[in-house]
Amino acid sequence: MATYAIGDIQGCLAPLQQLLTKVRFNPDCDQLWLAGDLVSRGPESLETLRFLYRHRDNIRAVQGNHDLHLLALAYGRAPTRGDADLQEIVEASDGDHLLEWLQSLPLIHCERGYALVHAGIPPIWSLEQAQALAAEVGEALSAEASARSFFSHMYGDLPDIWSDDLSGPSRLRVITNYLTRMRLCTADGRLDLKTKRGPEAAHGDFQPWFSFSERKTRNDKIIFGHWAALEGKADAANVFALDTGCVWGGHLTALRLEDEHLECADCSMLMD
Question: Which of 44, 130, 146, 269 is deepest in the core (most CB within 10 A)?
Fold first, then answer.
């Protein structure tokens, strides 16, 4: 049995299948850990979600910001924009089953000494605190009425810093932003959600979330995606950056947990 953690697929089914062939993935005994953003921007979001749903017993996955946007679209709570690939999922004959599975996924998965999360964990939170706060969002998504309310208030960059005193939609929004959208922040957790370039774009007190020596999860192994501009390089111990820009013609990367060996599939075909 082997476990492969894979970065942002974003509807790129052909590179995923190429990568699974390369690592000789065996659906009878192997597992896939997926770091979120399963859909959006790539050419085959619906087909990708169908493929993953068929193999769901072998999959441990977390939600990314694009997955949450798809769910918001399904609930009629997403801002209006051109999302034809995602609307195709909503309108598909099996869309309800696919979306129900997607909505059931957590924001963090912890097992075997690793934490899987889409964007990262802010330096002010321990792994245990991050799990507890992620569970609050999971609870909001567990029923239709509370999920509809969650998606109605999900969008926005404020509050941009954590406080234990936060409650209601603001509390859930900042938890979600930390776990699914964060790149740069300050040591005390203030977010910069505008900057999307690599670490060279750090400014003032805003640095990559994993770079702070006082980070409470520095001794925990964290697998994350989301930040394609890192090109798979996070200059810190115990963090594994797996978004290597597949949807932009880069690579799709898998980390084998048993020995932390990396394998990649070329995604340049998507740019042809």
Answer: 130
Predicted confidence at residue 272, as pLDDT, reads 57
pLDDT score at 189 = 98
Strand partners, 191: 185
Cα Rg of the chain, angstroms: 17
Closest CA to 257 of 2, 1, 42: 2
User: Tens digits of per-residue pLDDT, 89-102?
Assistant: 999 999 999 999 99
Assign domain 3-271 to its CATH superfamily: Metallo-dependent phosphatases (3.60.21.10)
Tell which residue, 226, 235, 237, has the closest CA to residue 199: 235
Q: Report which residue type is found at 20.
A: L
Write down the pTM of the prediction.
0.96
Instruction: Give the pair of three-digit tokens for residue 49.
Output: 């979600």
pLDDT tens profile 160-196:
999 999 999 999 999 999 999 999 999 999 999 999 9
Domain boundaries of the chain, sorted by first residue: 3-271
77-106 mean pLDDT:
92
pLDDT (average), residues 235-248:
96
